């Protein structure tokens, strides 16, 4: 990794454009046979940030010659009502991928809802089965943000073999699967979280830092080992990530910006997974 004063900027916008171009070509090929890859996104409640993310995903689908179906449910929706909605989408042959927008209202059992998504349509890798497949190294559709992190590392040829990676955060759809994917690429991985003692010391030993804590500018520049790669998976109000970008960039060898880093690649991976799901479902019919 670069140890000069100027870090390599891991440009997610540029990589996402390349991925989306390939996705569009595959989607157009499917459309020529009568199948339009379709992503169904379920939005429960009226959280403004979630609504914005859903619109972004719908626009991305449209630009990639795909279809998007947005299912809006009332904030008072029960777990059983949500499960019934997911079951209907599972049965619909014109829906190839299902995304339940996170977070859901507190009365809903989110894990039950995630696990109700049919494995072939779990394009965001949120089911327990999907996580297990990721841990064993053969996930068809790993969680999209961890997959985006890995795509950036691969695209910029950041070698993970024997490197020490520190993942800050243990979400079952971000921190934990990111750790599994890094392990699969022969990194030595430490997972840190809110109860970790001496977090600064752990981060300071890392060759690769993945920040996934959901707290703005949480990771400080003084924590970063000179030359380390810093991948910021956070997005907080004010368009800031989970790392103090300016301070971390002064020490890092490579770093993702926010916005324009992990986020665009996450959406591109979601589209890629949906097209792959459509191809697989067509092959099975």
TrEMBL record:
Protein's job: Catalyzes the oxidation of 5,10-methylenetetrahydrofolate to 5,10-methenyltetrahydrofolate and then the hydrolysis of 5,10-methenyltetrahydrofolate to 10-formyltetrahydrofolate.
Binding site for NADP(+): 169-171
GO cellular component terms, semicolon-separated: cytosol
PANTHER family: C-1-TETRAHYDROFOLATE SYNTHASE, CYTOPLASMIC (PTHR48099:SF5), C-1-TETRAHYDROFOLATE SYNTHASE, CYTOPLASMIC-RELATED (PTHR48099)
Family according to the record: Belongs to the tetrahydrofolate dehydrogenase/cyclohydrolase family.
The protein's name in its UniProt record: Bifunctional protein FolD
Pfam families: THF_DHG_CYH, THF_DHG_CYH_C
Metabolic or biological pathway, per its Swiss-Prot or TrEMBL entry: One-carbon metabolism; tetrahydrofolate interconversion
Catalytic activity: (6R)-5,10-methylene-5,6,7,8-tetrahydrofolate + NADP(+) = (6R)-5,10-methenyltetrahydrofolate + NADPH; (6R)-5,10-methenyltetrahydrofolate + H2O = (6R)-10-formyltetrahydrofolate + H(+)
Lineage: Bacteria, Bacillati, Bacillota, Bacilli, Bacillales
Domain Tetrahydrofolate dehydrogenase/cyclohydrolase NAD(P)-binding stretches: 143-281
Species this chain originates from: Paenibacillus sabuli
One GO term of the biological process aspect: purine nucleotide biosynthetic process
Molecular function, one GO term: methylenetetrahydrofolate dehydrogenase (NADP+) activity
CDD domains found in the cross-reference section: NAD_bind_m-THF_DH_Cyclohyd
